Amino acid sequence: MAIEVRIPTILRTYTDGEKAVTADGASLGALIDSLEADHPGIKERLIENGDLRRFINIYVNDEDVRFMGGLEAELSDGDQVVVLPAVAGGAA
Amino acid sequence: MADRGADRGEDSPYPVTVLTIDQATYDAIVTHAKRDHPVEACGIVAGPEGSDRPERFIEMVNAAGSPTFYEYDSTDLLELYKEMDQRDEEPVVIYHSHTATEAYPSVTDIKLAGEPGAHYVLVSTREHGNNDGPVEFRSYRIVDGVVTEEEVSVVPTLQKSEL
Q1: Contact criterion met (CB < 8 Å) for B116 and A9
Q2: Which chain B residues are within 8 Å of A64, Cβ to Cβ?
Q3: Fewer Cβ in 10 A, N or C end of chain B?
Q4: Sheet of B18-22, strands arranged across
Q5: Partner residue facing A91 (CB), from B98, B112, B113
Q6: What is the ipTM of this complex?
């Protein structure tokens, strides 16, 4: 199973500057473990206390995984995964 | 790491720079901030990858709708990044307003800054709100939690890139 994962600029330090890498997994959680095996340290930037970080967005085939079961979201061969940090902030 | 601020620009891959922005884009950011006051306004100015030219002004919706917080809607965010990708663009300026405080990055702004190559522009509307009058308009680099203010140079139009 091969799934393309688009990596945002701020996480490319983990992928030797690559904008996209290949990983595999039947669920998003498994995919992230596969990413971690090849790019140590990246998991910690995506997951906190066993859940997706609040200000990291992950999309599978253009759908936000929060609406697909989060880390439980099922993946299939050929799916495209995009990781984007939230653009957020404010005076608070 | 503690004295990171002291050697800024020497080791950083993003050296201290100037934000050069054209008057129309500057005005568009200010107009947006005044219109949305007291809610924080947010948006982006995209430009060709590696050009450092803020060319394409894009207002974003503040999905938080808050006077003290902004966040792009997650669907809008994906659309924006896909579009920039297709056009070989990157975010050159990421702007938002503070509506009751100064135009300086808050702890939240610093923590959530995810584009080390971008100019983070802050506009403060605290003085005149929705009305005419000057605003604070300041620009920063935010890299690994380190904030570096930079000069803002407003020009009539951006010069054409030399090819």
Answers
A1: yes
A2: 74-75, 78
A3: C
A4: B18-22, B146-155, B136-143, B119-124, B89-98, B42-48, B56-60
A5: B98
A6: 0.93
Cβ separation A84–B75 shorter than 8 A: no
Return the DSSP state at B72.
B
- Judge: B115–A88 Cβ closer than 8 Å, yes or no: no
Q: pLDDT tens across A49-77, in order?
A: 999 999 999 999 999 999 999 999 999 99
Q: Which domains does chain B have, with CATH numbers?
A: 15-155 (3.40.140.10)
How far is it, in rounded angstroms, from Cα B106 to Cα B60?
20
Where is pLDDT greater, at B11 or B133? B133
| Tokens describing residue A31 | 């995919």
Instruction: Please tell me what DSSP assigns to residue B160.
Output: P
Looking at the complex, report in whole angstroms how far the Cα of residue A38 sits from the nearest Cα belonging to chain B: 22
